[in-house]
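Record 1 of the preview.
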Amino acid sequence: MRNFIGNLIWLVFGGWAIALEYFIASIAMMITIIGIPFGLQSIKLGVLAVWPFGSKVVTIEESSGCLNTIMNVIWIIVGGFWIALTHVFFGALLCITIIGIPFGLQHFKFIKLALFPFGKKVVDA
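->
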């Protein structure tokens, strides 16, 4: 019940805007064939942005390491660094107040996935 209430508050106070931003970016990335893997990773971020409480990011053990590393490096260069910086900013801003701490921690959870989305999966906690 606690996760449901947290997710509901998250959606009302800006979670929907972050998710919408990720989904629009994923559509823009999928215009080209080369951008499809990056668009899929953006969808992964968007799904987490819709319902972050009760979810966690785990590493997929059976995924190919070399390709994931190359794709993560390209992702960081193209925009992942700036996405992560945005989550650092909003996380720090929200952690200023006691009420905002759980929401700030959710932004900090996004940083790991925003930097290295390839080889990661979002699962229920």
